[in-house]
Protein 1
Amino acid sequence: MTSRIEDYALLGDLQTAALVDRNGSIDWLCFPRFDSGACFAALLGAPEHGRWLLAPTDGGTTNRRYLHDTMVLETIWENDEGAVRVLDFMPPRGRAPDVVRIVEGVRGSVRMRSELVIRFDYGRIVPWVRRVADDTRTVIAGPDALCFRTPAHTFGENMRTVSEVTIDEGERVPFVLTWFPSHQDPPARIDPEVALAETESFWRDWNARCTVPLSGEQRDLLHRSLMVLKTLTYEPTGGIVAAPTTSLPEALGGVRNWDYRYCWLRDATLTLLALLQAEHGEEAAAWRHWLLRAVAGDPADLQIMYGVGGERRLTEYELPWLPGYEGSQPVRVGNAASEQLQVDVFGEVMDALYQARAHGYGFEPESWALQRKLLEALERTWEEPDEGIWEVRGGPRHFVHSKVMAWVAFDRAVRSVELHGMEGPVDDWRELRDRIHAQVCELGFDAKLGSFTQSYGSPELDASLLLIPLVGFLPASDPRVRGTIEAIERELLWEGLVLRYRTHAAESPDGLPSGEGVFLPCSFWLCDCYELLGRHDDAHALFERLVGLSNDLGLLAEEYDPVERRQLGNFPQAFTHLALVSTAFNVLPHLPSPMHRRHARDGSQPPH
């Protein structure tokens, strides 16, 4: 039986990632990139679709943690035979990607079993395995190859590679799995102990760059989310994937199963501000450069997401041989939403580059020229219906959030001229900004409801309306904004947490069967709105509850089921951790506030 989503831990080497459950099974791993085919796909099927189990033969109880300020996972196993410690990690990528597992005897003598089931192409292809040395086996199919090295005795059993060894107190036995292109020779072996020391040093040095004053618990909370974002970064380009997984369901047994192993422009501003607030300027600069490269070209071709290298073609297809997580089908690879028109991304790109400039990332003529072209394209498209922030598949509408973000695009352009000395038709931009603002206030507000609505002419609410004060479209004190927040509290709260919108509504725009969990970033937005309204106790209470939904390692998925008390959706989710970091800075009184900085006229930090 597949583990619960929250039972997984994340490993990563800044180019791909693995998920390992409490029972010692790595059930998901794509080589060599986040978006490559999986060689372990048991997460979306069964052990025969690929996994790597390393656990005591007789089982036992476990206790796990990340070693302080690292992404090295430590699992302590205890049973009647004794106790062992397993260290799982992926060293930051050298020439080849490695997964390293080290077993250490703590007490007594414990029998351990490693069961390696490799199935390339998302669990479909059984590879050719051969022994090339006493401690080495190679695994090959098509373009992919793996090298498995361990001093433990290894043998084949039922299309599996099995190792069995008894670990005595004080003994350490390593297992190393390395990917390489099948047309090349296996990479040189690494020293697992040296790799462990270097991996620990890498993460501790990286965390040491953040000197924001934090108490112990606050520090651990923020640093873990920031490490998740770093782990989801594709280091060669600076792109950050939304999640390392595909098709983890938003409703168990449902069809809302999407591939999130790509980079969304919608995350741009939050990503930039989170990294800058935490003093990780190098990563912020790399993300900005990735953004500029990805969107270069004809502005009419702007996409909402790209591959980690800036790839545009993310063709969506299904994998019928995989039964899906707890029977949730279909399993999808690629994402057809990449072909949708979503007007809001223009605002996200303009806001992100404006914030970068406000934080001291200087003027680049080609960047500003690109932004002007984006604005020209937006002038032609902002009045068109689109698929909106939630990437609906029920046809385009005039989504209020999309129009608000079109306003953001022109607002940031005007500010760039007024505050940063950029050149452009500022009078035209002001006129467009004001026209969009007036239209949204006229057509996007329902006086009977006392609230803005999801789309023009619709009575439905949408949690994206919580962003209206966060981007500076209207202040939180405006009666229309207060009414919107109150309406969302009445209509979109489920057990005190925020739904994106009512998927069961007669006018639901998404074109899919109803049902999903609460969307965790939306609940963090509500925290931010409470803070802007001066409802500090409500903000802190909701923030603490949201943080408490994370698993024992501090990891959060995209959604949550408050009744079943289970995490849902792709995991761990960058958008959720970005929202957590941003809200932490907003609600903790001694920290700088990104929501104030985001819509401050000069990008500065006003008093908190």
Note: The longest strand covers residues 98-117.
Protein 2
Amino acid sequence: MPRKKAIVTGAEAPVIDDERANTLVANLVEYAKKKLYLGKYDAVYALNQLIAEFGFAAPASPDDNIGELQTDILDPLVGYAIERGLTDPEDALLYETKIMGYVTPAPGEVISRFDDIASSAGAEKATKYLNEISVNSNYIRMADISKNLRWNAKFPSGDLTITINLAKPEKSNAEVARAKSMPQTGYPKCMLCLENLGYHGNPRHPARETIRIVPMYLNDEPWFMQFSPYVYFDEHCIAISESHHPMKISDETFVRLMDFTDMFPHYFLGSNADLPIVGGSILAHEHYQGGRKVLPMFTRPARRRFVDPEREDIAIDILDWYNSVIRLSSVRRDSVQEVASRILAAWRSYSDESVGVLAYTGDEPHNTVTPIAAKENGQYVLYMILRNNRTDEKHPYGIFHPTEDMHNIKKEGIGLIEAMGTFILPGRLQGECVKIREILSSGAPADFKALSDPDDPLSKHFDMIVQLVSEYGTSLTKAEANKAIIDRINSTCVKILECTAVFKNDSAGAAAFDRFLCHVGAVKV
């Protein structure tokens, strides 16, 4: 049989024979025993499943040094499987996940171990275990995530974290066409459903044999927690409803978020808003995102403080942040929930035409919130980012959305994570920034006529390039050009966050924000 080229992690997989492949299978099981806590009997079972998968009559012995999981075990094994016709090159990742599924402890075993650790050593140690399983099983592909470009941007009004996301490369036209040709089964209903647990995947849907979850109850409803495979910040986790139903911000949302922080006080948990434009990318299935309290918004102080005359134990702060954030904090959970419910009810129907805030267009609602719960310094804390998704002729993408002159950097909706100061920018920017750097360091006049051609890949950056050339010329060093481009991206991200503020950070916006809090019964200190 002619050998099929196997591209697994960016390089052609090495050619190995049957004997070496059998040894690598043994190495994989040894890896699972050491890194995935695969038990003695499950290891025997997994080994027999793998030798049957690859067609070996009996197992081999592992190497003394089994090497690295990806480069020394998985890449050559998947290459061997492609050469033997066990899978196709375009399904390499699906097949890799399949064989890792054989050696990842069963979901019930992981849940049992998680509960044992939580009861004996605490919730923080238990989540560390689940995160370790998620990384070491390659469900979280750290080799890919490490390719992301990431930096911190410092500003007097609050630092930002900016990432160019290279871990999710854009699909080729051939891959898109292949995915479209696949039959739509409607199973699982979406990427978040419980039915993803162990799902084999296809060109439309990622394989999930290695995903592991922990069930829990939030507001007395069945939910489960898993870690995000994309890791946009430390220990990025997702809490997901077992029921497939749309996102909805309600009083029950606050109860669920605080139930979670009672169970996992070392994590925050927040919900994307429940309206298009200002919501997350998946509005069809209710879920929340959380993790370590490392997002920039958590570091900001209060700008102004209010109190509730009826509940003296709660502080109501306007946060010193780019968008419009109310922070509620109290040692009493019921106080935070009660005031949050009152603010949500008032905001849903609140309008202030002087600052462009209209609650409805006809029967279409526009006001909602992005809520984030945490425990800080012994207090319950709830951040409520006020959102409005209204559009008009001048702002077809949203009045409180990045304007079109910023879409070259970020066009998509500004959800929970970015609203808190951690930006996830499209991977295309990496190559585009390199080409812009070449213009700024070429020493030759910029060809603006060519750049204005819609077919030019840099045409979306035309205005930005004109501004950069006007300010810096085209004789910068590559380092100077890099800095100029990064500075422009950083300042654009600040402007994007400022666009999302329903009450702008100026005198008119401050007065309007104060009016709203007075409307809900708060009194300024």
Note: The mean pLDDT is 94.
Protein 3
Amino acid sequence: MLEAAIPPALAERLPREAAFAARRAGRARGAAVFLAWLDTAEGTLAAQGLALEQPRRGPRTLLRSLPPPATPWHPGLPAATEAELPEGEAPAAAGEEPLVPIAAFEGRRTTLPFAEGVEAVLVAGRLRAVVAEAEAARLTLSGPPDAVIATMQALAAELPCLPARATLAEEGRALARGEAPRPRRLGAPELDPAMDVEGALVLALGHLTEAMLWHAPAARAGTAPDGVHQMRVALRRLRSLLRAFRPACDGPALRGFDAELRGLAAVLGPARDWDVWLGGLGAEIAATLPGEPRIAALMRQARAARDAAYAGLRPVLDGPDLRRVAWQAVALAELRPWRGEASEEAAERRARPLPDFAAGVLERRWRRLAEAGEGIDELPDEAFHELRIDAKRMRYAAELFHPLWPRKRARRFLVRLAAVQEEFGLANDAAVARALVGTLGRRGGPRGGRDGGPRGERDGGPRGERDGMPRAEPHGGGGWAAGVAEGWALARARRARRRATVAWKELLATEPFWA
């Protein structure tokens, strides 16, 4: 069973939409629906990720509204039923406190038979709390897993249906409290040593896809830099995850998913680059030279370039590209196609204990990183950038697998690896800044590649992740302000490289936690 959120404005006409109507295999059945959610005044159930649902008639249902940490989960799963209770009975999880209504939903449920044994249920109506209300709509498909996933993917190619970010119960709770729904998954996943290799991949895949989708609305809004930044981090962790598990789980389906992630990350790149420039080097220059009209003009150009980058990003997040990535992740987690696509050697690796598999992945990456960093003081810019990419991949793998070992063993290594990556990142930000300023300095203002960003490939561009070092280009007649900014960026990059060398040597002296 899969659940998608759809725009409430679409719900009424959804059965008549061509993509929807073409799959119908019988008459629709409709009925009114009313649901209320109860909790203690202190929110005892909600604090445990639970919701007590009461229909107008019939038994109460205790739902799992937020999945417990470190348990398998992927987007598109509806709320799980913990227990059905007789009418009027309170769950033990509520304690001795009386239950009170928190929020309610009233609307209509429409059930439609689809081809290939799939049943569609459309629920649309209004969430209500004491002082607020909001429209909501959900589409649920049930039936044979292959057919359900294929149907949802086909619908998402034509219609705006993404995995729901929260259950109706959680949305109702948030409405009542005047706050946003709580995220189900954020940050890095938490693996357990008792998991098998395949289970760890599925858990992490669902966790990171959920995190990516959670940040998508903020990335689309563009009102603060954190949305695009966190969405890119989730995408990078997803790509690192696929590479880490490639020896055990591989094949066309996973490779195709990685290509989709790469394309989405490339679209996010220009917006993130301008956010970093405006909040970092640009702000520093403007503060140092206040009132300088040429710097003020450069900043206006940079803000215009940022706005253009976000304008190019929004159609992608609103359109089928993001929906395709989301439901591809769901298909991978549900169907596990690598079982039929990977080699026999991969199947043998999947049978290994997870810590053994993880230690092999970490050791290979560490050897590669250490070899690439020999003579770091003398590395040219391009080789230094490649070292930064290796360090980033090492960090994502270490963050993913470190829960498999005692915390104290991993802490020092992770702290020092993070320090290296921070300095490498600052050096790269400065290099990116030089390229960005070069575009601002040209007559006519900023211009760049197909996605509106500066020239020079970054992670996920057409030349691949390793070719992420942007090139600063001459600023032509752009003049003094662009020259000042490029020189400033160059000086900052050199300082960051010196600090990176110190952090690198400290990391090399640290014992790997998986050894």
Note: The radius of gyration is 25 Å.
Protein 4
Amino acid sequence: MTIDPIHLSLFRNLFEAAAEEMGITLQRVAFSANIKERRDFSCALFSPVGELLAQAAHIPVHLGSMPASVAAVLAHLGSLANGDVAIVNDPFMGGTHLPDITIVSPIFYDGALVGYAANRAHHADVGGISPGSMTLSRHIDEEGIRIEPTLLNRQGVRNMEALERLLAAVRTPDERLGDLEAQLAANHVGAVALRRMIERHSAETVAHYGRALLDYSEQFMARAIAAIPQGGYAFEDVMDDDGAGSGPVPIRVVIRAQGDRVEVDLRTSADQVAGCINCPEAVMRSAVYYCFACLMEDEVPLNAGAFRRIDVLTRPGSLLHALYPAAVVAGNTETSQRVVDVVFGALAQALPELIPAASCGTMSSVALGWTGWTYYETVGGGSGAGPGFDGASAVQCHMTNTLNTPAEALEMQYPLRVRRFERALATGGRGANVGGDGIVREIEALEVCEGTVLSDRRTSRPYGLAGGEAGASGVNDVVRAAGGTIEPLAGKARFQLQPGDVLRIRSAGGGGWGRPAH
């Protein structure tokens, strides 16, 4: 069967529209503010052999790693039958961190497997030692319930044992059940969309153009890689600390460009650490793939084909290829951001007129909660400036693509009040082009609650490029209601708030690009 360019574009849009429709359903049906308001979720369609066909423009750290979860499901459970639905969040089986629960549903048409629908959503609590499950942990079991690939539905019948085990482990079971049902609904919508495509165009045609789209994206990535001058490019940066008393923790990369293939070697990065910044392999790959996806033209579809020519080398047992029982909850949110920084830092040597300075380099995760409620969100920062442009201020950068929780939604649902939410002026690095400013967010507790902050770039600073200055590092503290004293918090900290206490987060600014004029 030949490839018609018009039909190729048509099917690209049909696949992507199906994934977007899944996302709209998940957002509208979900119970939690984290999914409904912040949109901390991702949706995708996969081929019958588990290759990523299309993704909605959701969370980069989810979508680059979701194929690993689909692969783990198929390897662990074998072929899924019609009506089966698999659930998984295990970071050592393609997951990111335990709050990110992935649902995988096979799609059948006339008795034949034609693809998979999958989505991943961040649940605001999955148990563990602190509310919100963003824990200052040293062992994966402290972070919540770990779900190896398991059938949530078996041929259309709910696996009540698996569901009850999950709900018994969390602090907010009703909300978790509502969000899980929303995830199931999203996959159903994806399945309906794919079947509709087959009814109109035939299964053979849909499969043919699915494969063609993978090859199409591969060729665009080959062109982007071929534009990198051949040679080796090394870069090193650090995580401030591991949350357990050790730091700084180095991350090192060597990128070797050879024709239209590239090798990304991260094997000399630090060993696995005691604290919670260890990075699952799937997360590390997501960060690497994201960097190279940024080199392609905007209109190119991102799918499995785009990453065929990128060889990623890691060392099992290292910070960037964590093995059980490593604590990993901040590897997804924090270490992934530093992987982006080091890969871009190396690429800047090869493509100095293309790569921007470092962005804020942290998701600044905040989790608060007490009996019966949990709140979680990430705080944006400044993006790095680049050749010919200033960095954007007060945005989510790189591996996260969520929104903030609106003050109205937060205050309606939780015993919290937003006291301040504004740009952190003059935190971007100076340069010919100025780095973006970070964010100041202040949240007042109206009741006693327990909290955790997992952040980075509190001692290190986002680097500038081409003579630009580094962005300002961030600051965490608590303003106590009793006496108004200010209690500094570490970048990774666990604390308690009394009524009237205010948690204050100031995130880092982005690096500047080019030498400042003055």
Note: The mean pLDDT is 96.
